[in-house]
Amino acid sequence: MLVQLYSETDLLLKAFRFEPGINIILGKYSGDRENKGINGIGKSSLVRLIDYAMLSNSAEKRFSQPKYDFLRIENHNLRLLKKTGIKFA
Fold first, then answer.
1. In what order do the strands lie in the sheet with 79-82?
2. φ, ψ of residue 35 in degrees (nearest 5)
3. What percentage of the chain has pLDDT greater than the value 70?
4. Cβ-proximal residues to 55 (8 Å cutoff; 6+ apart), any chain
5. Selection from 47, 26, 50 nearest residue 38 by Cα
6. Model pTM?
7. Where on the phi/psi map is residue 44: left (φ > 0), alpha (ψ -120 to 50), or beta?
8. Domain locations in the chain?
């Protein structure tokens, strides 16, 4: 089970914790962008990043796009914590 996704190099603005069961990634602006919608705040990128971290082949194509060049140009660390051996009812 995925427990937490975070970065020590500010790749992610905050740590994301996951609980057993279904987890929902909900986008919400804060501050001056609050009433401008939730497009472009990273919901899909976060899902793709998790997919990539889990060694998916399809995510590699997505992250080869120019808008993700910052992932290759800068040095980033990303930690993916997971638990094993969890039994679900």
1. 16-17, 2-6, 79-82
2. -100, 20
3. 49
4. none
5. 26
6. 0.57
7. alpha
8. 2-82
**Number of H helices and number of E strands within the chain?**
3, 3
**Residue 76 neighbours by CB distance under 10 Å:** 14
Confidence of residue 26 (pLDDT cuts 50, 70, 90): confident
DSSP at 81: E
Between CA 45 and CA 23 the distance in angstroms is 16
For 49, the token pair is 């990043």
| 35-73 residues labelled b (16+ CB within 10 A) or e (exposed) | eeeeeebeeeeeebbbbbeeeeeebeebbeeeeeeeeee
62: its two tokens? 């997505």
